[in-house]
Amino acid sequence: MKKSHWSNDTPVDYSPQNSGNNWNVRSSGTVHRPLPPTPCHFETQYQESYGDAVWNSQQSPYNQSYYLFQDENVSFPRRRIVSHGDYSEDEPAYQTKQENVEYYDNSFSSQSPRNVYTDGYKAYNDIQDYASLDYKRKSYMNYPEEPDNNYWHEPQESVYTEEYIEPESRKTNKGSFNTYKNTAKSDVGNNLDTLWDPTVTEPDDYLHNPTFKDRKKDYYFFTKRGIFNIGSLVFLILGVMFVFIGYPIMLYIRRAYDDAHSCPNCIRTLPIDLLDATRSLIDPDTPLEFYERKSKDGKIYKIVFSDEFNKNGRTFYPGDDQFWEAVDLHYWSTMSIEWYDPDAITTNGGFLEIRLDAFRNHDLNYRSGMLQSWNKLCFKGGIIEASISLPGRGDISGFWPAFWAMGNLGRPGFGASTDGVWPYSYDTCDVGITPNQSDSNGISSLPGMRFPNCVCPNSDHPSPGKGRGAPEIDIIEASVDLSFRLGEASQSVQFAPFDDLYTPNYEHMKIYNKEKTHINNYRGNSFQQTFSCITYLNNEWYDGRKFQTYSLEYEPGKNGFIQWYIGDNPTWMMKAESVGPNGKIGQRLISEEPMAFVINLAMSESFAKIEWGRLQFPAIMRVDWVRIYQETPMITCDPPGYPTTKYIKEYVVFII
What we know:
By secondary structure, this protein is of the alpha+beta class. It folds into 2 domains: 1-212, no CATH class; 262-654, Sandwich (Jelly Rolls), CATH 2.60.120.200. The protein is 11% helix and 20% strand. The strands form 4 sheets. Strands 3, 4, 7, 8, 12, 16, 20, 21, 22 and 24 form a 10-stranded antiparallel β-sheet that branches. A hairpin with a 5-residue loop joins strand 20 (548-555) and strand 21. It is globular and about 125 Å long. The termini are far apart. GO terms for molecular function: glucosidase activity.
């Protein structure tokens, strides 16, 4: 069976008259045959004719004369819309696919391939076909790297006389007019450039702008998407900066603002120097008859400080009061089960009230209060007393009200400030200042004295050459004797370093009324050595029914003493010789540190049994007044030789 070119029908002869069989072969003559339709994959919508030159408006870098034809009668269509199946008025409209195929097949013979170098073009040496005029191709034209060269160059017999030999690449899928093997499927009729030169490389699609002309536009980011991307990055950077820089600054400023405006009547919010106090150290409401007090041995003490709490509605948040401050913390060191909140303390009816409620606060089931004069009001030596009505009932155990004093170098409730400081009162350089007292038997679990009298030069020490600490003296810690169902008061003092078996020298201790007062069997543990006596109380001195006075008189130093009172009667007394040298341990001192007040109401199984079924809430500890008497006024947190405020200011991180 004979085939004429690619079709079974007789081909249309477009050759000029008397041209012979070689009319479309390399020659110097002009081209008389019509050009094929412009390939449909041209991206530019319009092509315009400039005289004899066909010029694409997007190909400005190229010379217009580069594509001129020698024959003025031959040119590209003047105007056409480039899309599949749409033809301009300058081109014939082909109604059927078969007609299109016939037109293409008879226009370009595989026997005589078109020569792009001499076939009627002028200065056409750099590109291989007119399809290269377009630089934007459709992205669906995917060509393989190795085209079927046999289709283009395999010699054939005469188109009109010999049997048509179909290349292998055409046998795979005739319907698709696939000119390449295996993968690429491009319509031959719509992509004629693939017939002319198999080495044509298909550029990327128009979205990627692969040509040099548009290369600079690849980096143009002033678009909606570019501005949105840049804006998003700027927003994220600003957000991170706000979280790690702006927010902490805002919190700091807000905290300073709140402190400055929480008490309009206060002069300032920093620790208040007593010289700048808004009222005198002695409360004007203190009756004149209590401006002096005589001690048991006949000494006359004069009042140096008093607070009668007669003004109702006082609050004790930081900065609210010149002498007192309520803490906001959990006192974990005593295993207390309540949270100390400043809101639990106020003044009402002429009394200071500390209220213990049974509701959750900071994940604890109870809320109470602790009032301190730390770093605001300190004293050294003299008589300290307070009139108190204890909370609850004297026959029900569970509450732990306390009125006590502690050295100002340590702040109660802040463990970092008391580590290595509490309850040391020692001025000797020996094994007593070392961790665990250098004893492997476990007598001490303390880390060693932080401020001994023997230190290296330039050490962080509040007063080099002197042993410094934060001893504790308890004026009253109330509980209940369950065997007699009577209230009782523990009056004690804590020391470090420790005696063997925590046993003091009882020869230098005195109990005034052994029927009401006895030595406490508890003598301490590996964290403290305790000297304590227990005194029975009247169960009427509870819940606001009646008040009783609890006081302490002491004289600092190695020759000093401590004496406790309930009412006007002393309960017991100890001298400094009770904690004198003992074995490897030297003399412990009656506190020479400036001491600060603490008043609090707690609950802890470590101190007293809690009778859960009998306790009633809320429980209120009431204080009528607090007074201090001294022979020589020493109301300061910086007594001579024992400064504290400078050290606290430099190392506030450990204390606040």
